[in-house]
Design goal:
Helix content is 58%, strand content 5%. A two-stranded antiparallel sheet has the order 1-2. The protein has helices spanning 3-13, 17-24, 28-36, 43-60, and strands at residues 68-69, 73-74. 13% of the residues are buried. The protein is globular, with a radius of gyration of 12 Å. It starts with a helix and ends in a 5-residue tail after the last strand. It has 79 residues and is mainly alpha-helical. The longest helix is centred in the middle third of the chain and has 18 residues, at 43-60.
Length: 79
């Protein structure tokens, strides 16, 4: 996951860097560094934000199978 994708995912959740950091139990600085490319986004970090997106999508649209982003298709983890 690229830094831009990470930030887009946060924005799709409607969260500030501080709010996402609290949900992921990391510092706001960690989220900021991931989004700016200063910290590598690990597989675990990418999976954590994708899990939040899945929960968010399920709560917004129950019963809809795989969640899709109109501009990019089904979410997937890309190393």
């Amino acid at each position: 996951m690229s830094p831009d994708e990470y930030k887009l995912n946060r924005l799709e959740l409607g969260l500030s860097q501080t709010a996402l950091a609290k949900r992921l139990e990391v510092s706001r600085e960690t989220v900021n560094k991931r989004e700016s490319g200063m910290n590598r986004i690990t597989k675990e970090a990418a999976l954590a934000i994708v899990a939040l997106l899945s929960k968010h999508a399920a709560s917004c649209s129950p019963g809809l199978g795989a969640w899709r982003r109109p501009e990019s298709g089904t979410l997937k983890l890309v190393e």
